[in-house]
Amino acid sequence: MKLLIKFILLYGLLCTSAHAENTPPSAEQAAAKSPAQQMDRDSVCTRCHDENDKTPVLAIYQTPHGNKADSRTPSCQGCHGESEKHLSGSKGNSPDVVFGIKKGAYSPSDAKDQNTACLTCHEKDQNRTHWQGGAHQVADVACTSCHESHAAHDKVRDKRTQPDVCFTCHTDQKAQVRKFSHHPIGEGKVACSDCHNPHGSAGPKLLKKNTVTETCYTCHAEKRGPYLWEHQPVTEDCATCHTPHGSNITPLLKSRPPFLCDECHDGPHQSKNPAAGNAAGMQGGLTGAPSANYTGRACMNCHSMVHGSNDPAGALLQR
Ligand code: HEC
Ligand code: HEC
Ligand code: HEC
Ligand code: HEC
Ligand code: HEC
Ligand code: HEC
Ligand code: HEC
Ligand code: HEC
Ligand code: HEC
Ligand code: HEC
User: Fold this and answer.
1) Residue with the nearest Cα to atom 13 of ligand 4?
2) Which of 105, 208, 257, 281 is an S-S bond match for 298, by CB 3.0 to 4.6 Å?
3) What pTM did the predictor assign?
């Protein structure tokens, strides 16, 4: 196997030196490349960069970028640029594009230049139509801050390892998903990218859908209704009551009922029962049981259908 690779590389080297300084291939030629010819293109670089590099670069052949049977596959130079000066091997001349965020032998190129190299092929992809103007583009985050192009396993594209990539920058969310009530993100069942499109979106906060609520419906479809009796804030914005990443008040609540409810309802039973004017607003008024709305599920002890009711008698969200 090793021998075969050596042979291919050597063969490529001969071919490229024979074609040295030639003009770029025509579109027709490029399209007609066979797998062996695809490997040849890379030999201008792989004659020096091979498994012996500190970071093995040849693992790229185990990724979609190394699918040599696909004529759209980028060559080394397709990403790193022609890099003529670097090819001569003289120290101090970096390739045209040096990716990544950490300084290695050379300083990385500007995020803009790195991204341009990727976008020449990926700008038209459906998922990246909102890259320009998206929060990450605006903040000069590089594609390679998230993606590892030479690794056989691109961590950010695996649900289980993706959060760690995001957490390197988003420490608030890292703390939130560890709270008592949380989406099973750390458990590898829900990924950040189930709700967000990190490449940009038409919605707020890089959400995949146009609103928070539409995003929630993608998994909690039953909350969409239609309900005979709707609860207005539910149809408006799930985030009025819930926080998406984590909370110590289960289930993912922003504050504890009855306070959560009181933010809008302002002691409903109190006003109905002026005689029972205590803080709970319930005493004697409805059941005679004190503070029923401060115990257990509070208001939901009675108004159990907080997201809406389909019962003809459910106008008060009680059934
Ligand atoms: C003549 C040998 C030679 C050729 C040909 C060559 N390189 Fe290099 N390249 C080097 C050396 C030497 C370094 C410095 C690496 C080091 O010190 O570890 C380097 C460094 C790099 C780095 C930066 C690594 C880092 O740690 O920052 C990149 C990226 C790179 N080369 C890409 C390429 C690409 C792409 C090609 C083909 C277009 C190519 N090289 C062709 C010798 C070569
Ligand atoms: C010369 C064109 C070209 C360039 C430049 C390029 N790519 Fe790609 N990329 C492709 C092709 C072709 C595929 C395979 C797509 C497919 O199968 O639909 C691909 C696949 C990918 C995938 C995986 C898609 C999948 O479905 O598995 C990722 C992630 C990706 N590219 C990121 C990048 C990043 C990051 C850069 C810049 C460092 C980059 N690409 C530069 C052509 C390119
Ligand atoms: C903030 C992190 C982040 C940045 C920055 C980022 N990506 Fe991605 N990328 C992801 C994640 C997460 C996925 C997996 C999405 C999924 O599974 O739905 C992905 C998937 C992809 C894919 C394959 C699936 C698809 O959406 O087509 C391609 C291609 C890709 N990214 C290219 C790029 C390019 C090009 C850039 C730079 C312009 C870039 N990415 C910047 C996180 C990022
Ligand atoms: C899809 C675009 C793409 C292609 C094709 C590509 N590279 Fe890279 N290269 C990158 C990115 C991005 C990095 C930064 C490290 C990473 O993401 O794995 C990188 C890093 C490197 C490094 C520095 C490694 C390090 O981390 O110190 C070398 C050397 C290199 N590439 C050489 C090559 C060679 C040789 C080829 C052809 C076999 C090649 N690259 C093909 C995108 C590409
Ligand atoms: C269940 C869907 C969902 C998941 C999963 C999710 N988010 Fe969010 N995220 C949201 C919503 C909704 C908002 C907007 C919150 C609001 O408007 O109150 C948001 C907001 C954000 C914000 C902006 C915060 C601010 O205050 O502006 C960041 C950053 C963020 N999320 C990162 C992440 C990261 C990183 C992950 C993965 C660890 C992740 N999110 C997983 C739904 C989600
Ligand atoms: C290299 C650092 C970095 C990484 C890695 C990163 N982000 Fe970000 N992200 C930023 C910066 C910078 C901003 C813009 C400033 C801010 O809002 O904090 C941002 C903003 C956001 C926002 C808020 C958008 C808005 O409109 O306010 C969301 C959501 C987000 N990122 C999600 C993600 C997800 C999901 C991942 C992982 C797939 C990720 N980020 C990975 C740096 C990063
Ligand atoms: C990608 C799918 C997905 C999306 C999108 C999603 N969720 Fe979830 N949600 C889940 C899963 C999975 C669970 C855990 C269910 C379980 O443990 O049985 C969950 C649980 C919950 C819980 C209960 C938490 C607990 O502690 O019991 C609430 C509340 C919730 N989600 C609200 C939301 C809101 C609000 C949104 C929109 C911002 C949203 N979800 C978007 C998948 C999703
Ligand atoms: C008015 C405040 C409020 C709004 C708005 C709201 N919820 Fe809830 N949600 C709650 C409360 C309170 C609970 C706990 C119910 C209980 O204990 O009976 C809950 C529980 C949940 C649960 C877990 C239990 C279950 O019923 O499955 C999910 C999932 C959920 N909500 C999703 C959503 C989604 C999706 C939206 C937006 C469409 C939304 N919620 C809007 C208050 C709200
Ligand atoms: C963001 C504000 C808001 C929050 C928070 C809120 N509600 Fe509501 N609620 C409303 C609005 C608006 C209506 C419709 C009122 C109307 O039609 O007169 C409503 C209607 C109701 C009704 C039906 C009564 C009626 O007059 O139609 C009940 C019962 C109810 N809410 C209970 C709750 C409970 C229990 C909670 C806490 C889990 C809660 N609400 C949290 C705004 C809110
Ligand atoms: C012990 C059962 C019970 C509990 C606990 C309870 N309610 Fe009620 N609620 C009722 C009944 C029965 C009615 C209808 C009778 C009435 O109008 O007084 C009602 C009516 C309402 C109404 C509509 C009438 C109005 O006054 O606007 C709202 C809103 C309401 N409740 C909100 C709440 C909130 C918020 C809580 C928690 C602080 C709560 N309820 C706790 C049983 C309960």
Assistant:
1) 99
2) 257
3) 0.92
